[in-house]
Amino acid sequence: MPLPTVAMRKMRLEAAISTANAKPRIIYDAVGLAGERPFTLTFVRGSGRTITNAERERPVSDAVATERGALIGFERNDGRVSSGDDGSAGWVSMIVRVRMRPR
Amino acid sequence: MKDRRTSGDTAPWSTAEFTFAFAVAGLIIASVVVPPGWPFWVRVAVAILAFPATVAVVARLAPILIATTRFLAGWPLKPLQEEDLTSEEQLEGVELEPTAWNIVAVELDGHLTVLESFPPLSDADPALVLQDARQRVTRPVRSLRLVHGTSEIAAWHPPLWRRLSLVWRLRDTVHRRTHRLGAIIAGIAALGAGFIIVFAVVLPSESPFQIEELVWPGNEASKFIYVANISDRSLLSRTVSASANDELLVRIRLAPGRAPASFRLRTLLRAARAHSSSVFVSSANQTVGKSLKTSFDEVAVKVPPELRLRAVPGSTMLRNAAGEVVRVLPDALSRPRGLLVERPSLGGHFIDTQIRVSRATSADKGQIAEATFSCRDTTQFARSQPVRVFNGSVVLCRVPLRNWGPRTLPSVTLRLNVSQARTTNDLNLVVLARSREASPLTTRLTARLERAYSPKQSLLFISGRVLSQDGLPGAVWQDDPLIEDVNVGLLSPGKDGSLIAVMKFVVGPSTGWRPDRPITVWPKPAPYLTFNAIIGTPHYGDERAFYKVSTVAKGGWTAALDNLWVHEGDKLKLEVFYENSAAYRPAQVARNTRSRCRCRQWQ
Questions:
Q1: I need a surface site. Which of B183, B214, B297, B439 has the fewest CB within 10 A?
Q2: What is the ipTM of this complex?
Q3: What residue segments make up the domains of chain B, in order of their start?
Q4: Is B579 on the interface with A (CB under 8 A)?
C-alpha cells in the first residue's frame, strides 16, 4: 500500500494522473500533512468516488490508493476522458483516517 | 489632341494606390467578418471568398479614385520638368511646336494634353493668356501650363472652389468613364456600410443571454452560482444563497435576433467544487426540460442534495470597520453593456512560493508568524499594519489608497514582512486584492490578469467577497472557506479606493505539482492532449495543483487545502481534480487514464 505504514510526524502524499497518450503521460501533485505526533493513514475501503459533469457520483476501485491506481473516466471508469469545454473534468476522492502513535 | 503621362505617373499602380485598395477591401471584408452572430466557419469562408474579388474591384478603381481625390484635395503637383517634355518617349506622338506657345493640360491621371498651339505673343502677358485659356477648359484638370518649346513660362493651379466647380460641371465626363465601375464600388461600399450598421450598431454586442432577475431563498447556506455563455465564454455571475433542494429561479432575457446559443448554469461550492446543473437554454427554443416561448423565461434550478451545502458565516454583503458595505464585484445585473470581465482565478496566486521564517518567539499557542503589510502607490501613501498569523489563516488587510487611477495601478506595491514564526516551515501566501470602489468603468482587466500570472508580478488584481465576522481590516481567520466567490474587479480611477489583500498562510510545501509543463491561461485550451495545464479557470484556478485534502469539521467537510494539520482520529478526504485541457477534437480522447496516490516522507 502506498499509504504510510511507518508513522511520521510530517508526510507528503502524492497523487498522480497517468494516461496512455497525453503529454506528459504522468502528472503529480502533493499535499502536506503534519501532526503533533507521528501518525499513519488508513484507507477507508470503498470510499473511492468520482464525479464528473456527465454523471453523478460513482464508486472507484480501491486500487486508487495503490501505486497501480484505478481507472477513471468521464462517463464511466473506462480510462477515457474526452477533450473539450464541458466533457473533460472530474474529481476523484478517497477517505483516509489518521492514526496517531500513542504518547 | 494627344496626351502623354508625366514621368512620375507611368507606373500603373503606386504604393499608395495598393494601400488604398487593400484598405478599402479590408474594410469591406471586415464588415463581413466582424458580425458575431454568424457561425465562425461561415464568416471565414465568406471572408476568404470575398477578399480577392473585392481587392480586384477596388484596385481596378483605385487610380481613378486616387486621381479624383488628389484633384479635389489640391494635391501638390510637382512643376513640369523640362525632361517631361523633351524626352523622346514623352514627345512621341505629341504635336508640340518648338517655336510656338503651347497650352498643356495635366489631366487627373497625369496625362499631358496639348490644348492649343499658337505663335509667340511678344507683347502679351503669359498669365493673361493662361487666364483666357482656362475659361475654355470644361473638364477637371490638375493644372494648365503655358510652355514655349520645352520651357514653362506660366502655370495655373485651380483653387479648391474651382476644382469643385469643375468636378461638378464635368461630372458627366467623369461619370462616363466610371459609371459602371462606380456603380459597383458604390454598391460594395453601401453593402459594407450596411453590414457595419446592422451588425455593429443595431444588434447588441453583448451576450445573447442576460440575467434579468435572480430569485433565491435567503437562508443560512451560501454558495456561488454563475451563468456562463458557452458560445463566447462571457461570464454572467451572481452570488446567491441557497440550501440543498432549494430551487433557484433564474429569469433570463434573451436578446432578439441572434443566432442560436446556449448557456450552462453552473454552481460552485466553496470555490473548489464545480457542479453543472446542465440547464441549457437556447434562443432556438430548445431547452432541456423546458422550452422558451417568449423572450423572457424562467429557469428553476434545483440545488442537488449531494452538494452538501453547509452554512458559512457571513452574508452576501460585508461591512468594513467604517460601516461601509464592501460589495462583491458588480455582477451581471449592474454590469454595463459591453463590459467584459474575465473569469477569476479562485485559487489566487502565489506571490512568493517559499518564505522561510527562521525562529519562533511568539508565546501564543498556534501562532506561526507575525506579518506586517505596507502598501505604497504613486500618490505617496503608505500604511503598515501588523497582524498575527496562524496556520491556515486567511488574513484580510485593507489598505486605503487616495485618488488613484488606472495608470498608477502598476506601481502599487504591497510588501509583506514575516517574522516571529513558531516553526521553521515554509509559508505559502495567496494574495488577492480588490478595490472597495469596484465600479464598472472602462478599463478591462484582461491584460492585468495575464500580467498577474507573471512570476514577477507581486499583486493579483482580483476582487472578491471576503466573508468575515465583522470585516475588520487585518482580521485573522482560521479557515479557508472564508474566501468565497472571488471575482475580478475593476479599480475606480480618480477615487479614494482601497486594496484589500487576502492572504492565506499555510504551513507546508509551497507547490507539489510536477513536472513543469507548458500552461495556457483560461479560456484558451491547450493545443495538444494534456492534463491539468490551464491556470485561471473560474472553478478551480491553477489546475496544476490538483490534489487537495479536507477534513471533517462541525458535521461537514472543510475547504480543500494543500496542507493540513491533523489530529488523532481525523477523517481526511483526499481529492484529485483532473481535466483534459485540450481543445475539443474527437481524436483527443485520453486513454487508460488512472488516478493513484503514494506517500513520501516530507523532507
A1: B183
A2: 0.96
A3: 1-203, 209-307, 318-507, 511-603
A4: yes
